[in-house]
Amino acid sequence: MFPYKTSIYLDKSVKEPLYLQLSNQLILLIREGQLTSGTKLIGSRQLAELLGIHRKTVVASYEELALQGWVESIPKKGTFVHNNLPNLYQKRKERESVVKEKSGFSFYTSSILKAKKAFKVEEIIYLNDGTSDTRLTPLDEIARTYRRVASKKSTYKHLDYGSTYGNNGLREILVSYLNSTRGLKVAKENLLITRGSQMGMWLSAQLLLKEKDVIVVGTTNYASADITFKNTKATLKRVGVDQCGIQTNEIELLCKTTQIKAVYVTSHHHHPTTVTLSAERRMHLLQLSKKHGFAIIEDDYDYDFNYNHAPILPLASHDTSGNVIYVGSVCKTVAPVFRIGYLIASKDFVDEAAKLRGYIDRQGDALLELTFAEFIKSGDLDRHIRKVLRVYQQRRDLFCKLLKEELGDYFSFEIPKGGMAIWTQLNKKYTWKQVQEEARKHNLEVGDYTRYDMAKTNHNSMRIGFASYTENEIYELINRLKTTMKSITKKL
Amino acid sequence: MFPYKTSIYLDKSVKEPLYLQLSNQLILLIREGQLTSGTKLIGSRQLAELLGIHRKTVVASYEELALQGWVESIPKKGTFVHNNLPNLYQKRKERESVVKEKSGFSFYTSSILKAKKAFKVEEIIYLNDGTSDTRLTPLDEIARTYRRVASKKSTYKHLDYGSTYGNNGLREILVSYLNSTRGLKVAKENLLITRGSQMGMWLSAQLLLKEKDVIVVGTTNYASADITFKNTKATLKRVGVDQCGIQTNEIELLCKTTQIKAVYVTSHHHHPTTVTLSAERRMHLLQLSKKHGFAIIEDDYDYDFNYNHAPILPLASHDTSGNVIYVGSVCKTVAPVFRIGYLIASKDFVDEAAKLRGYIDRQGDALLELTFAEFIKSGDLDRHIRKVLRVYQQRRDLFCKLLKEELGDYFSFEIPKGGMAIWTQLNKKYTWKQVQEEARKHNLEVGDYTRYDMAKTNHNSMRIGFASYTENEIYELINRLKTTMKSITKKL
After folding, report:
1. Rg of chain A taking only CA atoms, in angstroms
2. In the 8-state DSSP scheme, what is residue A428?
3. CB contact under 8 A, B323 and A96
4. Segment 209-268 of chain A within 8 Å of chain B by CB
5. Where is the HTH gntR-type domain (chains A, B) (predicted)?
6. What is the pLDDT of residues B342-390, one digit of tens each?
7. Could you report the per-residue pLDDT of B277-298, keeping only the tens digit for each?
8. Residue B339 and residue B193: Cα distance in Å, rounded?
């Protein structure tokens, strides 16, 4: 007889009912070929005795197996493993969960970079790309609003499948907020709520670019944008970036020989160099896009953070011919965890983007969208921006002062007029690789500096965020960086 | 002199500071070519008088324009519109927001279907595809948990950019929950948290399919899946579906002539026909996938809803060779608004999917993910499932009873063993188009019946959800449907 007693292990301490444990283990035995097609199962009374359980449990289990089609009950004869099961002998695996490593099929891998692993030691200071200080997030207000929104009777209708464009209430409030703060003049129909700027870029890339299409980006450019565009198999053409931003004359020259599908700009503060696109070039770029019929993807990722003057209105506010696709988000302004962004463009493009997003993730989170509608309407967002703007300006001033005074021999930079990061050029005597390696000995993690030079121009610069550190942390960071540079210099 | 007074309108009642209103309107006048390059602006004292505002406001405004590069201040000479601005004469548009209709560039449109517009009248009863009753959502518990999670000190670290795989805590809890409820034996590394099943399908399609690749689906199939796959330009091959589910013999035949990249199955309850894939075919399909190296995309969209017996373990629980990609979500179980799903596969595939999702929407919502980790851990999810299961079973029984008794002449169907919908065949004397048109007169909206027959086999069936209606609503729905059918019959 088949060794039921030693092959089956039932655990009364777990939630799963015994009869299900039993039937699932019998299925395992069948599919592993230990109980083969046609085998007569042991009688229920006998199995109950063997396993020390109630007979009814075994009967329920056999019924379950029959319902699932694994066994057949023949009256007065007994229960038999179904005859039509193909044999699929497999070595019995251990019952513990194990990582399945390899797929049994082939799939396409991409040029997409894998996120780098973060170091785990608490005391390490990590340099970053210019992220906000999440400790300043008005989390309590947001969570309270979330719960208040959830407690409204009228909220139930938002729990079902909803619009792929995003919640209508938020669309209306965002449009009026963006029209008033960014000088736009668009309607709700021109706005799609996304999961942050990245989704806006992704959707735009999918709709604009295919193999052989050309998109123009800066020589230095936001690495995620580069990768998002490359992933469509489009061709990236790079043009120079100077103190006035991306060089539109080069784009004009390019237009003479090449059909351009789109230009990607971070006009407010160029990523990564932080320079602002000049008024002259803005107008020039708009003119070119109109003349040659290309799209401008304007990624306005840190519009809210300006220290020397009011924010400069985006290209989108000057676009009368439907050439600008404007993407932005609250992720930098409030906290990255709140994946709420927007794509603003002509209605024909927004409609197509909304269709596509419906097949990517169906829709956004209407509860969170309603929460942010309240958060904007109440003025909480404005208050938050005013508050962190002051804090970040102080941090910028301190960071730049210390970087100049303490590390002026090693690094050169311009004080950024806005944003949350400094574009820092390392003295050509050194390499960032040296800095990274030495810094690790002093609990300072430089991060992936290579992503600032995807075009490999050897500019020897990287972007260093200042906004996420308190004043004490800034002193400590500069200190560690100084120790690092001194150590390297000694070894030279 | 330029008519400043009549060209500029300042509104003291709005939030935007006066100096900004002024500078933004001057920018508008410049870019519209009304103030051309080289023009000397009127003196600040004079403009202040004209507009009835303080001179300091005008000065601040001119400084703003200079900082933004629109004008140049020449000491003792005055303020001049910058010389290098390209002329971009445009007709002045109205200041109100207007819908921008047309893009100034070309982009790719897709075969993706646009979501149908819903009717607006409250009293209409809408048939649906088998959605849950959002009125049963434990929204208050979830919102309370959300706020509790947000109030924890340790939560701050989750507000920053996080893992593209999803929150680690939820991954661990989901893996153990799915291992115990679905007989899986996978590790955290095999699970990617997605925004619902749709994102799992989208990611799988992107990684598996390119032009000319072949994916197999049922003759009748979930329309969103069809469209998601078609959008990759892959070729869909259809095989029959009968009472035992998708016909694996046809797949075996197909394998002899064609290299198959993937097979899409809704094994638990086939969408749309609700039949369960038999044990025999399950083993056969697994065997084929192993032999021919194709992927099985198993969409287990309504695992939790079984009325006649315990849920049948998914194909993924029998997969030892890494051929199954298992996608599911809590969207049907809790509410569609909570976009939390999972993709389970071998680590190599999950890693690639996580990279890709990083460029689609960067990451999930860690706060919501932490909330659901609590919701599962506390047993609230289980309690919720037990509760709605009882309710839905009663609704199924009533719906089927009435459909048979009252409308047996018009519709035939099998009582579904699980899920939230009935596969309903209309008597061939009638068409769904007739039913749709007549039903509208009786405040009953049938919806898009064509999506159940993407392959155009004229089966004359559609899927009708029962779970979202209370007993009273079911009576009313059947009533309206009966009136509809009688009206049509009279006219025949």
Report:
1. 30
2. T
3. no
4. 210, 224, 227-228, 231, 261-262
5. 16-84
6. 999 999 999 999 999 999 999 999 999 999 999 999 999 999 998 999 9
7. 998 999 999 999 999 999 999 9
8. 10
Residues of A (35-54) whose Cβ lies below 8 Å from B: none
Ranges of chain A whose pLDDT falls below 70 = 86-97, 110-122
- Diameter of chain A measured on Cα atoms: 95
Cβ of A69 within 8 Å of Cβ of B195? The answer is: no
Q: Look at the block and give the residue holding tokens 């002199």.
A: B1
Q: Any idea which fold A125-131+385-491 has?
A: Aspartate Aminotransferase, domain 1 (3.90.1150)
Tell me, what DSSP letter sits at residue A135? G
Pick A137-382's CATH classification: 3.40.640.10, 3.40.50.9100, 3.40.47.10, 3.40.109.10.
Answer: 3.40.640.10
- CB atoms B367 and A131 under 8 Å: no
Rounded-to-integer distance, Cα B4 and Cα B370, Å: 57
pLDDT tens for each residue of B43-87: 999 999 988 899 999 999 998 888 888 888 888 888 999 877 765
The reply to whether B278 touches chain A by the CB within 8 Å rule is yes
In 3D, which of B310, B304, B260, B257 has the Cα closest to residue B285? Answer: B260
User: What CATH number is given for B139-382 in this structure?
Assistant: 3.40.640.10
Pairing mode, if any, of strands A262-265 and A295-299?
A: parallel
Rg of chain B (C-alpha set)? 30
Cβ neighbours of B459 (radius 10 Å): 16
B150 CB within 8 Å of a chain A CB: yes
Tell me how close the Cα of A279 comes to any Cα of chain B, in angstroms.
5
Write out pLDDT tens, residues A206-223.
999 999 999 999 999 999
| The pLDDT of residue A355 | 94
Identity of the residue in B93, B187, B335 whose CB atom sits nearest the CB atom of A99 = B187
CB under 8 A, 24+ apart: contacts of B373-378: B373/B167, B373/B169, B373/B170, B373/B173, B373/B174, B374/B145, B374/B148, B374/B149, B375/B141, B375/B142, B375/B145, B376/B173, B376/B174, B376/B177, B377/B173, B378/B145
Interface check A140 vs B, CB under 8 A: yes
**In sequence order, which ranges of B183-276 are alpha helices (DSSP H)?**
197-208, 223-230, 248-257
* Domain spanning A4-81, CATH class: mainly alpha
Q: How far is CA B475 from CA B125, B393, B407, in A?
A: 12, 16, 12
